[in-house]
Each structure stands twice: as structure tokens, then as C-alpha cells.
From TrEMBL:
Keywords: Membrane, Transmembrane, Transmembrane helix. It is a multi-pass membrane protein. The chain crosses the membrane at residues 49-67, 74-95, 136-162. The lineage of its organism: Bacteria, Pseudomonadati, Pseudomonadota, Alphaproteobacteria, Hyphomonadales. InterPro entries: DiS_bond_form_DsbB/BdbC, DsbB-like_sf, Uncharacterised_DsbB. One of its GO terms (biological process) is protein folding. It holds the Pfam family DsbB. This is Disulfide bond formation protein B. The keyword Mitochondrion does not apply.
């Protein structure tokens, strides 16, 4: 428990959140590269959340080093949590599309994977994978569903870190 508490103190949680985001992106790219699972437009949208979160966190930590105020770090942790909530929404929307509960967005009806090594006529329409077909399910959840669960856990941890920082779990030499 002390290990978890120490991760949520000071500037450690933004680094952990950024690392977990990079690992989620690495896993997605591994499924694509080694597993042959071409991403649909909603899969790519889920990745955009993690890329944005990494960019925002790097920028926030650089600014925090320039202006080391506790309230700035609290705001950064809250923004990280909000970014993860966006990830939850996108992931669960994708899972809802896969289950047939929600309509797929325009351009998600796909007719097969794109082969980047095949040179095609640019006047022909591009075929993208369908957003409605999950490649597999684990414990009833697709990859999009699990992405939503993981992003939800990370959002809660971000808000807990913001609360711990707000209560003063940062460097004692700082003033609010």
C-alpha cells in the first residue's frame, strides 16, 4: 500500500500515467504489427487520446518544473484524469458499436484491411477495417472494452493523485 501511495505523491503520477499511456500505445501497435490486426477508425481514435495525454503531460511537467506550485500539479493531475475519461468514452462507444448497441460513425463499415505495401490507384476508394467486428473477446470484453476499463482505472488514480497533491503530499518547500 505504501508503494501505491508513493506513486500518487509529488510528480510521480504524471510520469506513471505517461508510461502507462505509452505501454497502451505499444500494445496496440504490437497487435497491429505482430498480430496482423489492422486498426479501424475508432481504434485509431482511441490511440489519439493516449498520444494527446503524453504530449499534455510532458508539457505540463516541463511547465511545473519552471513554476513548481502545488496547485499547478493538482490541475495537471485533474487534466490527466479528464483525458483518461475521454479515453473511457471513446473506448466504450467503440465497444457499443461492436455489440451493435450504437450506430457506427461514417466510414466505419469497412470491407477489409489496408495493405500499405500494395500500390493502388488513388482514384479507387480505400477499404478500411470495420468498427463493428471485434477480433476477439476476453471475459466478454473486446480490446475496446478492456481499453475503457484500463482508462477508467487510470482516471480514478489520476483524481486520487490530484486529491493527495491537494492535501499537501508534495515537496514541503513548496507553497500553494
Amino acid at each position: 500500500m505504501d508503494f501505491v501511495r508513493s506513486l500518487l505523491k509529488d510528480w510521480k503520477w504524471p510520469l506513471v500515467a505517461m508510461t502507462l499511456s505509452a505501454l497502451m500505445l505499444a500494445a496496440a501497435h504490437a497487435f497491429e504489427t505482430f498480430g496482423g490486426l489492422a486498426p479501424c477508425p475508432l481504434c485509431l481514435r482511441q490511440r489519439e487520446v493516449y498520444w494527446a495525454l503524453i504530449a499534455m503531460t510532458v508539457t505540463g511537467l516541463v511547465l511545473w518544473r519552471l513554476i513548481p506550485k502545488r496547485r499547478f500539479l493538482v490541475a495537471l493531475n485533474v487534466m490527466i484524469g479528464l483525458a483518461f475519461i475521454v479515453g473511457v468514452i471513446v473506448a466504450f462507444y467503440h465497444a457499443g458499436v461492436e455489440w451493435g448497441l450504437l450506430p457506427p460513425p461514417e466510414g466505419c463499415s469497412g470491407e477489409g484491411p489496408i495493405d500499405p505495401l500494395v500500390i493502388r490507384d488513388f482514384n479507387e476508394p480505400m477499404h478500411v477495417p470495420s468498427c463493428t467486428d471485434a477480433p476477439f473477446y476476453i471475459l466478454g470484453l473486446s480490446m475496446a472494452g478492456w481499453n475503457g476499463v484500463i482508462a477508467g482505472i487510470m482516471a480514478v488514480a489520476s483524481f486520487v493523485a490530484a486529491g493527495a497533491t491537494w492535501r499537501g503530499a508534495v515537496r514541503p518547500e513548496e507553497t500553494a
